[in-house]
Amino acid sequence: MKTDELREKYLSFFETKGHTRCPSDVLVPTWDPSVLFTPAGMNQFKDHFLGRVKLDFTKATTCQKCLRTGDIDNVGRTAYHHTFFEMLGNFSFGDYFKEDAIHWAWEFLTDKKWLAIDPAQLSVTVYKDDDEAANIWHEKIGLPFSRIERLDEDENFWPASAPSQGPDGVCGPCSEIYFNPKDGGEKVEIWNLVFTQFNRVGDPPDNLEPLPSKNIDTGMGLERTAATLQGVSTNYHIDILRPIVEAAGEICGVKYDPASDNGRRLRRITDHIRACTMAVHENVYPGANKEKYVIRRLLRRAVLDGHQMGMHQAFAYQLVDKIVEMMKTPYPDLQDSVTRVKNVIKSEEENFLHSLDDGIARSEKIFAGMRSANRTVVNGDEAAELYQTFGFPPELFEQVAIEHGFTFDWVGYKKAMEEFGERSGGDQVKLFETGPIESLKNSVRSTEFIGYDNEATEVTIKGIVTAAEGDDESQLVDECSTTGPEHHMIVVLDKTPFYGESGGQVGDTGRIYSSDFEFIVTDTQKDSDLFLHEGYLAKGTITTDTTAKAEVDNARRAAIKRAHSATHILHHALQKTLGSHAQQQGSKVEDDLLRFDFTNMEPIALDQLTTIETDVNAKVVDGGTVKWETVPLAKARELGAMMLFGEKYPDPVRMVTMGDFSRELCGGTHLTDTKQVEAFEVISEESVSAGVRRIIALTGEKAKEYREKVDHSLDAMAKTLKCDVPNIPEAVRSLTGYVRDLKKAVNGSGKAPEAPAEIKPYSGADVDYYHRKEMLKESARLLNSPLFESAERVETLYHEVDKLKHQLAEREKSGTLSGDDLLAKATKVGDTSVVVADVPGANANLMRQLIDQIRKSTESSAVMLFAAAEEGKVTIVAGLSKSLVDSGKKAGDWVKEPAAVVGGKGGGRPDMAQAGGKDASQIPAAMAKAEELAKSLFA
After folding, report:
1. Which of 643, 795, 629, 652 is nearest to 716 (CA)?
2. What is the phi/psi pair of residue 798, to 5°?
3. Is residue 575 within 8 Å of residue 600, measured between CB atoms?
4. What 3-state DSSP class applies to 31?
5. Is residue 885 within 8 Å of residue 911, measured between CB atoms?
6. What is the rounded average pLDDT of the residues 259-270?
7. Alpha-helical runs (H) found in 867-922
8. Residue 355 clears pLDDT 80, i.e. is over it
9. With 422 labelled, which of 280, 643, 708, 735 sits at a CA distance of 20 to 30 A?
10. What whole-number distance in Å separates Cα of residue 855 and Cα of residue 867?
11. For 378-392, 610-624, 708-722, 884-898, which range has the lowest pLDDT when averaged over its residues?
């Protein structure tokens, strides 16, 4: 039986048993902070199992895309381990229980209409105390007790060892079904039935309390069962994986031999690149943290395997086409992102390959040292140094070490990394949380959101969460009278007009009040279907089960609407200019401020960015009706609504339409006409990570203020530069060049420049706003200053011009300075030529140049130069020749006392020291002190 056929048969079978077929959850469930990746089919139904959501159905079946890395070192080595895999599941939320679950599993596996597996080849396990399950298998199914094995809690309980070791919470016994090959080969677990029937509370004994509503969580590994039905010895030889393994061999120029080291490497490449393909398709790109780091780690392991087979150029990306071909039946949308996925993988490969050879060479040196010292464990400090300094990942270091027969000190590595202050990835928290919010989920379950049409409404206080006195732990209270912003609280209502942060849109603020209290809402968050109004009590006493009025800050809400509607218009403009690949990667929508991340492999060209900004503003000026409606997902897809890769949508969905150009699925709040955006200003376009760019933009009042600042800055610069606005970049270029040439002249490395020529009045066509803004950006770049500090920077440059001219004038008074002229005035102290001189108008850089000239002209020299600046400030530079330094003399020892005479201090290297002073009138006395010291220091 083909794998695609098996998947469809399973889902169809449970549909005949009254189950609702649900789509796979995404690989990265952003709504669930407890996991990085979806680890099992039950994950999307956690709140269904706990009764925290309204149940539209009580039985479900899915084929879930999963990704786990707990057994990553076994991938490619064993017959059945994967990182990415598909889990078939059937679930009951207080509906059927053990007998039906067992009967249906047996029917699907053995009935000729379905899988038709020989019953004689199946055996089961049950939890040691689960007589109920054992009796169903024996009495109802007819299995002899010889084929029913009782196992302890570490094998047949979920979570493993929960009764004795925890965690507290929902748990239950398991029953596993095994396939036993007729040839006597190793039996294979193909199905696991989990009976969640207890709530663990505290330590044993008597710590398993029966749940009022018992649930079923069943999982059957698609790849394992396919291998069983197809009669192959490993999952990697089933019909949807063997072609990928063979393709990997062809790309790497290696014939696939299952028993060889290269065979293991090809299987691992197959697994890892399949996982990366599925993840990148869902816009999870390789990166430095959390789920992105996992994808980077998988890709780099695959690249290392290829490297060890002689692949020194990017190759893994070529496997994407075959993976998509094998997976397109269940996931047809993969075909829409092939080019993007290949580009992302190729880019990451190429970046890594630059450092891989160097990392391997350095690891080989470490291994050589270990052999010499008879060490077998890679030191954690060495691994941390290799990662920190050269970017060689510890997982790959470990893999290379294993190839050489060494083990890896992960404890030492993590300790070293903590000392470095670095940490990649993120800890996963426990699956089911406890606490006051979870208690409110159980009691209140959900908050009705009415904020699309109302910004104020009568509400009932359903829960109050506040910090316990003396610690940070939160607690549920019936009432609270503690006021002030420092006392953080959360209020839960029966219904709310406040939008809870989601989909990139920030939460609403406002107030909840009655005659008894006023609660200031500083943020609104969502936890499943519960809205959490965060803030503080301003006055009075707030009490549960009382009525109040909830009122959103409507001015801020309006500004958020402007920014959110603008993101939809921007999304359209990006795709129109850059192409359909420019899909949203993330967004943050605040009041008149938006941050929009999107897929693009390179920076946006200036003319393209201007086109995008112009297009958005054209849509704003022209106007277009904004409307939203709730429609079936299939209808939204038929109407061409944009659906983001990796996003899981409810059915039905809320579809937001703008004019005739944009149709997206979105749960946020929006305007009713694009004209209401008022104005749109791009502030920046920058890189976020490989293949992801970010635009930050303003709308409404903030955009208008920005435009006013642009005009004000340009006008101020034009006035200072004495030119027309269109001539500003030319004038800035001329001014900065003039300052540069003046500095060269002051430093003695150039002639005094002529003042810049007067710029002719501008006589061209009127300059529109977009070009005016680019003029300001170009001027800021030339001035190396923040955008709106450019006018002040121009004024500073003019002051600098005056100072430099003054320095040049002072220089001219003392005539031409050269090292030879100064050396001609030297005195002898023993064999040493001592030069102590006043060099008016010289800066420290010129003084160092003069000292270098003298040191090159004579073998033994000591030079100390003095120069007065504005406001009586003094600069002193002293230098010694190499012969004096070699004899133990130090320039810093010579400069200290003369510096004190002019009211300063200083120091430096033995060969060159510098000091400053405050009293130029004392330069003659300081020079005398320097000459006096020279007689004793250099004699």
Report:
1. 795
2. -65, -35
3. no
4. coil
5. yes
6. 95
7. 882-886, 891-901
8. no
9. 280
10. 19
11. 378-392
Q: How far is 528 from 445, CA to CA, in rounded Å? A: 9
Q: What is the amino acid identity at position 590?
A: E
Query: Quick one: what percent of the chain has pLDDT higher than 70?
Result: 95
Mean of pLDDT over the chain: 90
Which two structure tokens, joined as six digits, stand for 890? 């130090």
Length of the chain (residues): 939
The angle formed by the CA atoms of residues 727, 730 and 734, to the nearest 5 degrees, is 135
Which of 681-695, 707-721, 920-934 shows the lowest per-residue confidence on average (mean pLDDT)? 681-695
Tokens 């993590």 belong to which residue? Answer: 414
Residues 411/379, Cβ–Cβ less than 8 Å: no
- CA–CA distances in Å: residue 269 to residues 170, 241, 266: 37, 11, 5
Residue 381's pLDDT band, with cuts at 50, 70 and 90, is confident
Query: Quick one: which of 826, 817, 916 has its CA closest to 862?
Result: 826
DSSP class of 140: I
Q: How many other C-beta atoms lie within 10 A of the C-beta of residue 479? A: 14
Q: Is 91 helix (H, G, I), strand (E, B) or coil?
A: strand
Q: Residue 632 region, left (φ>0) first, then alpha (ψ -120 to 50), else beta?
A: beta
CA quadruple 409, 411, 412, 417: dihedral sign: positive
Question: How much is the average pLDDT of 447-476?
Answer: 86
- Interval 816-871: pLDDT, tens: 678 888 998 899 999 999 999 998 878 888 889 899 999 998 889 999 999 887 67
CA 470 vs CA 307, 317, 487, 491, 828: distances in Å = 57, 56, 12, 21, 77
Q: Which of 544, 556, 553 is nearest to 516 (CA)?
A: 544
pLDDT at residue 564 in the model: 98
Strands laid side by side in the 653-658 sheet: 626-631, 653-658, 662-665
| Total Cβ atoms within 10 A of residue 742 | 21
Q: Does the N-terminal peptide bond of residue 39 adopt cis geometry, omega within 30 degrees of 0? A: no
Residue 471 has pLDDT above 50, yes or no: no
What amino acid occupies position 808? L
**pLDDT number for residue 421:** 47
pLDDT, position 503: 85
What is the rounded CA–CA span in Å between residue 604 and residue 588?
A: 20
In the chain the first and final C-alpha atoms are separated, in Å, by 100
Q: Which 8-state DSSP code applies to residue 502?
A: B
Evaluate whether 938 touches 830 at the Cβ level (below 8 Å): yes
Confidence band of 749 (pLDDT split at 50, 70, 90): low
- The secondary structure of 572-596 as a DSSP string is HHHHHHH-TT--EEEEEEETTEEEE
The sheet that has 832-838: what strands, in order across it? 827-829, 832-838, 861-868, 874-880, 912-917, 905-908
Which residues share a beta bridge with 90?
Answer: 61, 218
Q: What percent of the chain has pLDDT over 90?
A: 65
SS (H, E, C) 3-27: HHHHHHHHHHHHHHCCCEECCCCCC
Residue 113 CB contacts under 8 Å (≥ 6 apart), including other chains: none
Q: What is the mean pLDDT of residues 768-781?
A: 92
- Give the residue from 591, 675, 552, 578 showing the smallest Cα distance to 625: 675
Rounded to 5°, angle at Cα 462 from 459 and 464: 115
**Ramachandran angles phi, psi of 121, nearest 5°:** -95, 5
What distances in angstroms separate CA 251 from CA 246, 254, 341, 485, 893, one per listed residue? 9, 8, 18, 62, 69
Residue type, position 794, single letter: V
Q: How far apart are CA 860 and CA 883, in angstroms?
A: 6
Token pair 């899981």: residue: 648
Rg of the chain over Cα atoms, rounded to whole angstroms, equals: 37
Given a cut of 50, whether residue 427 has pLDDT beyond it is no
Would you place residue 424 in the very low, low, confident or very high pLDDT band (cuts 50, 70, 90)? very low
Question: Tokens in use for 594?
Answer: 């938006």
Question: What local confidence, expressed as pLDDT, does residue 745 receive?
Answer: 84
